[in-house]
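Case 210 in the screening queue. Each case pairs one protein sequence with one candidate compound; here the compound is S-adenosylmethionine. For every case the pipeline is the same: read the inputs, emit a complex structure as tokens, and attach any notable structural observations.

Predict complex for case 210.
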Amino acid sequence: MTVSSAWDNYARRTPASSQVPPTFSWTNHPGHGPGPELLEAEPGARVLELGCGKGDRLAALAALGLHAVGVDISAVQLAAAAARWGAMVEFNQADALHFLNHTTGTYDAVYSVYGAHWFTDPRVLLPAIRARLRPGGVLVLAHLPPGEGFEGHSPTGSPIKSELVLRWEGEAHQWASLLTDHGFLAPSAFTIHPPRGATTERTAVLRSWA
Ligand SMILES: C[S@@+](CC[C@H](N)C(=O)[O-])C[C@H]1O[C@@H](n2cnc3c(N)ncnc32)[C@H](O)[C@@H]1O
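Case 210 output:
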């Protein structure tokens, strides 16, 4: 099994959202919590999602007039994404780090929601992101707080961390240090709690500027 086939397996087990049009959220609850305003992106802005999965968040941004670009390592995820949103979103099948290192475009905002940033060494990924963000552009990263709810997210189906797909976990202050170490400015962090009655986990959100 390769990393991409592990994520293909994950993609087959996670159904596409039935929401049309999709509603943006930093959590797994559409429309819950803060929305795309965290990206500070006006219509026409270029926005990149790392590990975009089935592309619902990008479709929501495209509907707001943003130039939405996604990258994901899984062909299965992107086939589903392109089938629904291919007319309005630019999708790229690649490892996020490889994409960042081989594209010439720059972005007004880059984000990842439980996405590629969580599964790539941040000491390598953060400089690659910064190189593609315009000065003043925003980076938003969302993921589970450390130690919470891995089982539902394991791409291999294993209830424990697989050796094939590693997840980079850290407390907010550790992510903030990593961000400043790599030249990002004014990192801030907050937690989104699940909607009332939902049993799912919290979402940690980090925000910083190039
Ligand atoms: C847990 S899923 C989240 C997907 C989506 N962001 C969402 O919230 O529904 C992680 C996604 O990141 C993608 N991914 C993991 N590692 C990646 C990498 N190195 N480069 C690009 N995509 C990656 C997987 O294929 C998968 O679609």
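Case 210 observations:
- Residues 3-12+37-209 form a domain with the Rossmann fold fold (CATH 3.40.50.150).
- Residues 3-13 form the longest helix (11 residues).
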